[in-house]
TrEMBL record:
Keywords: Membrane, Transmembrane, Transmembrane helix. The chain crosses the membrane at residues 34-57. InterPro entries: DUF3712, Tag1. The keyword Membrane applies. This is Uncharacterized protein.
Length: 337
């Protein structure tokens, strides 16, 4: 096939001094300068890579992390001592989908803190725990059991325990830094999440649902069951919680809920008390008949006779109005749990 310019050359009858076509000129140029173009191309690729790796990928990767949300299904604080406890967490990270489907994040330590407690403008972490390596694509289930936590900042933990005891709702922040892998590329990202959690609300709603008199029992003369509502997702091993029982401002005696493991929901726990002197036992019977309320405070908690300060402090500030209502479950039409 001949091009129109070839035809022009033939028509004019010229054989020599052929004008190069545009295509031929371009080819000739590249034959001579290929190396310069190759260098330019390589420089271009490197610039694109640098922009992508340092300029585009990190913010994109950060956005992938930022748009995830963490919901905490369950939290547990067990085996408390004065200097340590064990932490459990069952959470779900949602939103790691779309471009994050094939993303992998390295395991990393995350710091937990109260969202609004800052010291000199810095957040003050309560504790640190490891988040395992995770893959994107659907919900990421984070289940951690019995993570040993040593208490490094007692003041911060005190604040956390008090907030948990006293609040209806609380905001907890989680912060960390990890590496995200997107195929062959990896980049560092910040993990920064604030979670709204329910608090224990001063254990409001406690009810003594059962009480029995004990004779000749060294552990006490009045025992029973107390319903303690726990609206949180947190299970807390509290130890032997000491009780201070009074009625209309007058002390009635002391008691204990042994080995209290406060579970989420409304559950009953056994207690034993020393009501003294004896005529207070009669008064107690009157309170029960009238479905009247006692005032119950605490002198803290201990495990194997050793006091746990960070759990005791919030308990010691507690003062709850607790009715004696042995018909509680009958009235509610539910069975005790
Ligand atoms: C009380 O218990 C002790 C030991 O279990 C027994 O020896 C004693 O007889 C009991 N007293 C009464 C009044 O039941
Ligand atoms: C616990 O009891 C309170 C008060 O009766 C009620 O509002 C709440 O829904 C109950 N919670 C559960 C988990 O049953
Ligand atoms: C609370 O008081 C009772 C009675 O005085 C005592 O036996 C118990 O050890 C105290 N508990 C704590 C944790 O101080």
């Amino acid at each position: 096939m001949s091009t129109s310019s070839d035809r022009k050359v033939e028509e004019a009858g010229h054989i020599s001094h052929v004008q190069l076509t545009r295509g031929q000129r371009v080819k000739a140029h590249f034959r001579k300068w290929w190396w310069a173009h190759l260098i330019n191309f390589c420089v271009f690729v490197v610039v694109v890579m640098i922009v992508a790796v340092y300029g585009i990928i990190p913010p994109v990767a950060q956005k992938l992390i930022d748009k995830t949300t963490l919901s905490i299904n369950a939290f547990s604080i067990t085996s408390p001592t004065g200097t340590s406890f064990k932490l459990g967490m069952d959470g779900t990270i949602k939103g790691a989908t779309g471009p994050a489907d094939h993303a992998v994040i390295d395991s990393f330590p995350v710091k937990l803190f109260l969202d609004d407690v800052r010291v000199n403008g810095d957040i003050r972490p309560i504790l640190e725990f490891p988040v395992p390596k995770a893959h994107g694509g659907g919900d990421i289930h984070v289940l951690q059991n019995d993570i040993p936590i040593s208490i490094t900042d007692e003041g911060a933990l005190d604040q956390y325990a008090s907030r948990l005891m006293d609040s209806v709702e609380m905001r907890v922040g989680l912060r960390g830094r990890t590496t995200i892998h997107l195929g062959a590329i990896h980049t560092d990202v910040n993990y920064n999440e604030v979670v709204q959690l329910k608090g224990l609300n001063k254990l409001t709603g406690m009810v003594i649902t059962k009480y029995t008199l004990h004779t000749n029992n060294s552990e006490g003369n009045v025992g029973g069951d107390v319903l303690i509502p726990n609206p949180t997702v947190t299970t807390i091993e509290m130890g032997d919680v000491g009780l201070k029982i009074s009625y209309k401002g007058a002390a009635m005696g002391t008691g204990v809920i042994k080995n209290l493991i406060l579970k989420p929901g409304n559950h009953t726990y056994g207690f034993m008390s020393h009501i003294t002197p004896d005529d207070n036992i009669l008064k107690l019977a009157t309170v029960a008949i009238q479905k009247d309320s006692l005032t119950i405070g605490s002198n803290g908690t201990s495990i194997n006779g050793v006091k746990i300060p960070w759990l005791s402090k919030p308990l010691e500030t507690m003062e709850s109005t607790v009715p004696i209502n042995t018909d509680y479950f009958k009235e509610k039409g539910i069975s005790p749990s």
